[in-house]
Design brief:
heterodimer; A: alpha+beta; D-Maltodextrin-Binding Protein, domain 2; 2 domains; 6-stranded mixed beta sheet; 18 helices; globular; B: mainly alpha; MetI-like fold; flat
Chain lengths: 457, 297
């Protein structure tokens, strides 16, 4: 009896542990596979034939990241497409940014990639190495797609191994936002700090931010009696260690420095780079800028700081105007503050076709519509994304108005800094872990840089 | 006739057990075999058309990776420190809920409620509670004159916060202990009382031995859970700050889905499987000395 029980318990724990581990580790594959199986199934509906005739009804899947609002707008775009091509049904699969890439990996592992999917220039090389993209050069040439309307630099960011694997569809840009209501309210702006100029320097922004950072007694950092434990309003909110690609990198370039060298090694140990890092460390230590913990408490997204009513200025993308409008924030926009030169990041998202789609014609039709004049004009009419196709520029200006023209103008300051696998690892894997706290004045920045250097080797 | 009957019984046995055997083979043996296979390759994806056999180099690379070492150390912390703390917390709560006081059913319900809340929601609540700037905990501590503590931003504090979170959601373990406590015969307490034992002595001489099978069960389950901790680390701090909460399984996940190195993820999984099996084996062996099965005496 004793032996039996022991064996039973032993067997139970062994099986339990094995099952949990294997299913746990494999579940992402399996889930990904089974989760997408429906979609794969949809994709395969009636697809015993490898090349369906365009006139026959076909269902394809399109996957992208985004908030619920962004996905809703994409669905509206897809509805327009389906009106134009009634024989093609497009099923939208939406995920948030964080889980999108893991999901794409799981799909690739399970052989259930969506027919068409959104890409980011930051991940082209990484996923290009996995071979998930269909090469587009031949298709584009055969079908006569007009590439001349898309900037060569944007197209270049969507090439892998010299081949076009994705077509840029938007050219989002990073700018500097401020909450007009805070500047206009004497209680929140007792020193009467002016709104930042169109091309602000960091000295100017720091001065404004200092005046707008208030403790519960209305005192600013640096004033006698300032209570740093009871800050009720921050002048600015930036987190360079957690936004290396879209904030820290252009700021480094602005000061003549770089994030990574041409050989992929870390470039943060130059005097110019350290000047930038020290500036943000100093601003955070002086409590003019939010700490990571404060950002977490304010909702966790540094680019949405001004929606809380407790932050006067923060960096963000042109897409964040949606969030500001939803939060009823009366926002103003300037270029990113500069050290020496105006710099920003242009983030072109793109559209790709999976290498193993069974509906190449339909997938290409969707891709060419989304990246071509019709789809780009519809995108521009929504007024939230900056179309990459110049054929839609007028439509964007007509919809977004002169206020948002700055997004187009800011593109002239875009840095040319393609993503390599190493840079992607730095930004998305190692950088935040190592640098987030040290760049907020909490931790040894030298040790963090050394640690990062070794990891990038 | 007898032989026929035996064959019939055998057939029925296999008929009934066949769904389990099929399921076990399909969903365990095949994936396990596949994982072992890929652990010796450089495949970036399962089913990749191109891969090479690399022998043991994945295992060598794994041990040379500082992030792997850190994740192993963190996981060891959650097992060595976390499991005893969480188990003790469960037992303490179970004993409190085993007291004969008015409204005990309501208390039991309240203590079990956090277990019913999805872990994602619990972690979000936890983030709000432990936020250094706006969290209710620091607000409470400030009344006592204690300054702001960066619970989740500190490398030294983030792991204890996660262990505390585990105690918070430990309702299932509490239930197991509560059931075990209820099953301890009253006459044993009466006997030691007659022998002059006090409450502490009766706890160590009666309660603990009588519930030791339940303790073993909870310890093994909690050990396996902590070896595979993932959700808490991911949602609370994304394994940070500076990898302080980077757990073993989180590292496996990142290897597979962020670094796109499935073969390395498989290697780590197999290592973890071996580690859990070993620890469970040791626990089972040690349990002979500490676990008392009443029915076997």
């Amino acid at each position: 009896m004793k032996t039996n029980r022991k064996w039973l318990l032993g067997l139970f724990t062994l099986v339990l542990s094995m099952t949990i581990i294997i299913s746990g580790c494999g579940s992402n594959n399996n889930n990904g596979g089974s989760g997408e199986a429906t979609n794969g199934g949809q994709s395969n509906n009636g697809s015993a034939e490898q090349t369906e005739k365009p006139a026959e009804p076909v269902t394809i899947t399109y996957s992208q990241w985004g908030t619920a609002e962004e996905l809703q707008r994409t669905q509206e775009l897809l509805n327009k497409f389906m009106e134009a091509y009634p024989n093609i049904t497009v099923k939208l699969e939406g995920k948030d940014w964080g889980s999108y890439w893991d999901g794409l990996t799981a799909n690739a592992a399970g052989g259930t990639l969506p027919d068409v999917f959104k890409t980011s220039y930051a991940f082209i090389e990484k996923y290009g190495e996995l071979g998930i993209f269909k090469e587009l050069d031949g298709l584009l040439a055969d079908k006569g797609f007009e590439l001349g309307n898309i900037d060569e630099s944007l197209l270049g960011l969507h090439k892998y191994g010299g081949k076009q694997v994705s077509l840029p569809i938007d050219a989002n840009v990073i700018v500097w936002y401020y909450d007009k209501a805070i500047f206009a309210d004497p209680k929140k702006n007792p020193k009467g700090a002016p709104v930042p100029s169109l091309e602000p320097t960091w000295a100017e922004v720091l001065d404004i931010a200092t005046k707008l950072t208030l403790d519960k007694n209305g005192k600013n950092p640096g004033e006698a009696g300032f209570d740093g434990n009871n800050i009720v309003q921050w002048g600015m909110s930036v987190s360079p260690g957690a936004s290396m690609d879209w904030f820290l990198e252009p700021e480094l370039w602005s000061n003549g420095a770089k994030l990574v060298n041409d050989d992929g090694s870390l470039a943060l140990n130059t005097p110019e780079a350290r000047e930038v890092l020290d500036f943000f460390i100093d601003a955070t230590k002086k409590q003019i800028n939010t700490t990571p913990a404060q950002i977490e408490g304010l909702g966790g997204q540094v680019n949405l700081g001004i929606t809380t009513g407790k932050v006067a200025m923060n960096p963000g993308g042109n897409w964040n105007t949606t969030n500001f409008k939803e939060a009823n924030v009366d926002y103003g926009i300037t270029y990113l503050p500069k050290f020496k030169e105006n710099k920003t990041v242009v983030q072109p998202a793109g559209i790709a076709i999976s290498h193993n789609t069974k509906h190449e014609d339909a997938a290409y039709t969707l891709l060419s519509w989304l990246a071509g004049p019709e789809g780009q004009t519809e995108l521009a009419k929504q007024g939230y994304s900056i179309p990459a196709n110049k054929a839609a520029s007028d439509a964007y200006i007509a919809t977004a108005g002169e206020t948002n023209k700055i997004f187009l103008d800011a593109q002239q300051f875009g840095i040319i800094s393609p993503f390599t696998v190493k840079k992607t690892d730095l930004v998305w894997t190692y950088g935040e872990q190592s640098l987030k706290n040290p760049l907020a004045g909490d931790g040894d920045v030298d040790a963090a840089i050394k640690d990062l250097e070794s990891k990038l080797k | 006739m007898k032989s026929k009957l035996r064959r019939y019984d055998t057939l029925i046995f296999f008929l009934f057990i066949s769904p389990w055997i099929i399921g076990f083979s399909l969903f365990f043996l095949v994936p396990f075999g596949t994982s072992v296979f890929y652990a010796f390759t450089d495949a970036r994806l399962p089913g990749a058309a191109e891969y090479n056999f690399v022998g043991l180099s994945n295992f060598v690379d794994m041990f040379n990776n500082p992030i792997f070492s850190k994740s192993l150390t963190n996981t060891a912390y959650f097992v060595i420190i976390g499991v005893p703390v969480v188990t003790a917390g469960m037992l303490l709560l179970a004993m409190l809920l085993n007291m004969n006081v008015k409204g005990i059913a309501i208390y039991r319900t309240f203590y079990y409620l956090p277990t019913l809340v999805p872990i994602v929601a619990t972690v979000i609540i936890w983030r709000l509670v432990f936020n250094s700037e706006f969290g209710i905990l620091n607000a409470g501590l400030s009344v006592l004159g204690i300054g702001k503590i960066d619970w989740m931003g500190s490398e030294g504090l983030v792991k204890p916060v996660i262990i505390l979170l585990q105690v918070w959601i430990s309702g299932s373990g509490v239930l197991i202990f509560l059931a075990a406590l209820k099953n301890v015969p009253k006459h044993l307490y009466e006997a030691v009382l007659i022998d002059g034992a006090n409450k502490v002595q009766s706890f160590f001489r009666v309660t603990l031995p009588m519930i030791s099978p339940s303790i073993l069960f909870v310890v093994i389950i909690q050990t396996m859970y902590n070896f595979q901790m993932f959700t808490e680390a991911l949602l609370l701090t994304k394994g940070g700050p500076n990898y302080a909460a980077y757990t073993f399984v989180y590292n496996i996940y990142k290897s597979a889905f962020t670094d796109l190195k499935f073969s390395m993820a498989m290697t780590q999984s197999i290592f973890l499987f071996a580690l859990i099996s070993l620890v469970t084996f040791v626990l089972m062996k040690l349990s002979k000395r500490f676990v008392y099965y009443e029915g076997e005496k």
